[in-house]
Amino acid sequence: MSQGHQLTLTDRKALSVSGVKHVDSFDEGKIMLNTSLGILVLKGESLNVNQLNLDEGKVSITGNIGNIQYLDEHQVKKGKGIMQKLLK
């Protein structure tokens, strides 16, 4: 993957993301992407991954996008600790 990370949001209904390493999780309300710049969390309603090409690092998402957030290292580590506790 030679290109950088970019987001293109159209009318809060369609999002194209480049620089994606892999999809961590997704459902209708939340999608987590591991990108070249960190974990990207998308929240909304009726979210759908329409196109996924990890060889090119590109993802296309549709739905009612309400929130776009990057998690910093502290938030990612905190989240992993909670998940580890739940899985015990």
From TrEMBL:
A GO BP annotation: sporulation resulting in formation of a cellular spore
Pfam families: YabP
InterPro entries, alphabetized: Spore_YabP, Spore_YabP/YqfC, YabP_sf
Listed name of the protein: Sporulation protein YabP
Organism for this UniProt entry: Metallumcola ferriviriculae
Encoding gene (name): yabP
